[in-house]
Specification:
Helices cover 67% and strands 0% of the residues. The protein has 192 residues and is mainly α.
Length: 192
């Protein structure tokens, strides 16, 4: 337990703004968050939902795409692990995770398949089996449009681009080809 407290303190390391420390702490927390007991404790007692939603939103305002993506990937991986426990799905959705993830999805326009895939799979896990959480997602501004765009394989414009500039490929795999798994997961989310 003291180990988790140290990792949470590092993940909140706003004053020093050490991206490597924050991303590393989030990745380690993601690896620690493997048992039902740990993930429920992180959500119920440690303020992790607020931390991760605030982290996603803060990183989206940063101008440096590389640093921003590294921390966003780690935060989404941890959120995904937290959503495995059914007991966490309502607190995650009610705590703002749906909206924060939808806001992070356009990072996929920067050719980051992990952000797109983890984000879409996380949204699917959160809404699965719950008409109330599905309505919550539908109420998030632009949620259905963002997920539809991913399902169609349409690219997001790179952050900071001007109208008329070429857009990037939505998501590419290691071989440089489109990664259709992300489109499949987005289409499945829309069908749920």
């Amino acid at each position: 337990e003291p180990f988790v407290c140290v990792l949470l303190a590092w993940a909140r390391d706003e004053p020093r703004n050490d991206e490597a420390l924050r991303a590393g702490a989030l990745w380690v927390l993601s690896n620690v968050a493997r048992s039902e007991r740990v993930v429920v404790d992180l959500v119920a007692n440690r303020g992790v939902v607020e931390l991760l939603c605030a982290t996603l939103r803060a990183e989206l305002r940063r101008p440096d795409i590389a640093d921003r993506t590294r921390i966003v990937e780690a935060a989404l991986a941890l959120l995904r692990n937290l959503a495995v426990a059914r007991a966490n799905r309502d607190p995650l959705a009610e705590g703002g995770a749906l909206a924060a993830v939808v806001e992070a999805l356009p990072l996929a326009g920067c050719k980051n398949q992990h952000v797109a895939f983890d984000g879409v799979v996380l949204l699917s896990a959160l809404v699965r089996g719950s008409p109330r959480r599905r309505r919550m997602l539908a109420d998030v501004p632009s949620a259905l449009g963002v997920v539809s765009q991913i399902a169609k394989g349409v690219a997001f414009p790179p952050p900071g681009s001007k109208p008329g500039q070429p857009t990037s490929v939505l998501v590419v795999g290691p071989d440089g080809e489109k990664d259709l798994r992300v489109q499949y997961e987005a289409a499945r989310l829309l069908a749920e």
